[in-house]
Structure formats: structure tokens, C-alpha cells
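Need a sequence for this fold. Nothing fancy.
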């Protein structure tokens, strides 16, 4: 899929969660390639970083902020209606909006679990349902779901996030098979740790074990590992470029792994016995005396 269709019209994309991180960068990268990008913002008042980045890149006229809280189905449909009315088409959806709820499974309230899935899974379903009728009428399109290596491999204290991304992986596979006959390609992007705010926000808004928690010592050893992983993570622009690649490849793949780090992680999960992986993880992050 190039930057213009056969009739010379600019390609049009909807990117959710565009106020920061991968969504912001992917929005700017697509606009640089000539796309018209509708940047979904849960809170339009928090779009200043996006607008500044678009201005620096000289693509402000091709970046169009739009109010979109993916947990509100009616807002997803209204956004799709607006885009079709203004631009005449929706060629691509980048379902990027999400957050990471931290905490140990026993201690995370069910309300937080529901909130995690409302955004990371049901929000993807809502926006996908909103754009699909347009794509089918056009005779094609692209859908890119921003998943995670956590969609293939679990990690302690991130159960809600890991579970939501595992569910997203299954959704992506089913969607790809359902939509292929209609010329709509579905791809999953599986980033590892990158320098974005998602982990700090998730941990601060989750269920942090208190001093009387049975998981207090576990968390004390685990937290520095998570913080270090976020601080030393990769350049998020690598993921943005991978999103662009999934939208422009002549034959888009089901899964895209941005770097060799993600490929190594998933190769280990595929080929190594689970007991080896478990032993390595527990040695690195678990307290010596576990209940």
C-alpha cells in the first residue's frame, strides 16, 4: 500500500492513542510519507506534544486530531463517520491505545482487570468494528494491532496486561483469517521494552503491594528490574517505523518483531523448555523464600 491510491487520493489512517509514545511517533511518520492521519486522543486537551512534533516535522496540515476514547463505542463510530465524511475513506487503522496495569494477580481488584481489558481488547474491537464497513466498501484496507512480546510470554506482576495482550494476539489471528477474502490485511506488532511512559503509569496506577503483603519482598526485588527495563529500553521510533512498514509492505505479515531482541525472546519461548525459562526468571526477580 503506497501513500496514494490508484486514483491519486492520499491514503487516510486512524491512529488511536496518539498523544504520546508509539502512537504519536507513528502518526508523524505516516504524515511524513504523505498520509492524512487522524490522531485519536482520549483527551484532546493533551494533544500538545503531538502537535509540536507534527510542526517540527513540517506535517501539521496532514495531522488531524480527533476525540476518541476507545472505551466508548459511540465515540469510535462517531470518529469513523467524521473521517469518512471529511476524507472520503479510511485506508488503515492503527490500534495502539492501551495501558499496562501492574500488580500481582491475587491483589489486583477486578475493577482494574476490567479496565485493562476495556482499553486493550474491547477498545480495539470497538474501533475495528467502526472502520470495517468502510474498508469493505472500498475493497481493502490495513489494520495494525499494537500488541507486545507480553502477548506471547508472561511476566510476574503484570498479569492483567499480559492477559490482555494474549487475548489481542488471538483476536488478530482470527481477524486476519476473517478479513483476508475482503482484501483487508491484519498485522500484529510485538514490541519489547521501549522508552515510553506505559510502565511507569501502569505500576503507579495498579495494585502496589503494601508492607504487609505476602508479595512485598517479591515486589521489592522485581521493581528495579522493571524500572531498569523501561529506562534502558529501545528507541520507540523503531516501533513507529515498524508500524509504517506493516502498513506499506506489499505483502504484509501477520507479525512484526521490531528488533532482534524481540526475535530472541520469542525464539526462547518457542524452543526452550519452560522449566529453563521459569528458573531464569525466578533467579533474576523472585525472593529466595517464596510462599
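Here you go.
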Amino acid at each position: 500500500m503506497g501513500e496514494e491510491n490508484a486514483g491519486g487520493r492520499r491514503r487516510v489512517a486512524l491512529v488511536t492513542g496518539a498523544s504520546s509514545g508509539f502512537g504519536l511517533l507513528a502518526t508523524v511518520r505516516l504524515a511524513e510519507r504523505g498520509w492524512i492521519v487522524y490522531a485519536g486522543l482520549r483527551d484532546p486537551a493533551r494533544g500538545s506534544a503531538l502537535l509540536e512534533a507534527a510542526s517540527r516535522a513540517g506535517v501539521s496540515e496532514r495531522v488531524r486530531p480527533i476525540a476518541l476514547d476507545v472505551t466508548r463505542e459511540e465515540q469510535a463510530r462517531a470518529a469513523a463517520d467524521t473521517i469518512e465524511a471529511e476524507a472520503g475513506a479510511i485506508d488503515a487503522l492503527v490500534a495502539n491505545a492501551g495501558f499496562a496495569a501492574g500488580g500481582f494477580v491475587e491483589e489486583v481488584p477486578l475493577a482494574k482487570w476490567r479496565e485493562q481489558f476495556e482499553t486493550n481488547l474491547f477498545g480495539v474491537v470497538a474501533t475495528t468494528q467502526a472502520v470495517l464497513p468502510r474498508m469493505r466498501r472500498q475493497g481493502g484496507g490495513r489494520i495494525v494491532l499494537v500488541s507486545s512480546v507480553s502477548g506471547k510470554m508472561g511476566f510476574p506482576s503484570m498479569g492483567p496486561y499480559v492477559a490482555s495482550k494474549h487475548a489481542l494476539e488471538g483476536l488478530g489471528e482470527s481477524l486476519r483469517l476473517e478479513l483476508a477474502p475482503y482484501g483487508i490485511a491484519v498485522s500484529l506488532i510485538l514490541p519489547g521494552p521501549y522508552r515510553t511512559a506505559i510502565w511507569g503509569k501502569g505500576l503507579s496506577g495498579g495494585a502496589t503491594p503494601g508492607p504487609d503483603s505476602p508479595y512485598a519482598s517479591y515486589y521489592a526485588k522485581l521493581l528495579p528490574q522493571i524500572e531498569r527495563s523501561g529506562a534502558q529500553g529501545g528507541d520507540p521510533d523503531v516501533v513507529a517505523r515498524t508500524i509504517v512498514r506493516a502498513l506499506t509492505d506489499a505483502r504484509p505479515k501477520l507479525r512484526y518483531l521490531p528488533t532482534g531482541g524481540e526475535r530472541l525472546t520469542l525464539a526462547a519461548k518457542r524452543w526452550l523448555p519452560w522449566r529453563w525459562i521459569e528458573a531464569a526468571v525466578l533467579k533474576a526477580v523472585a525472593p529466595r523464600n517464596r510462599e
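For context: Residues 12-285 form a domain with the Rossmann fold fold (CATH 3.40.50.720).
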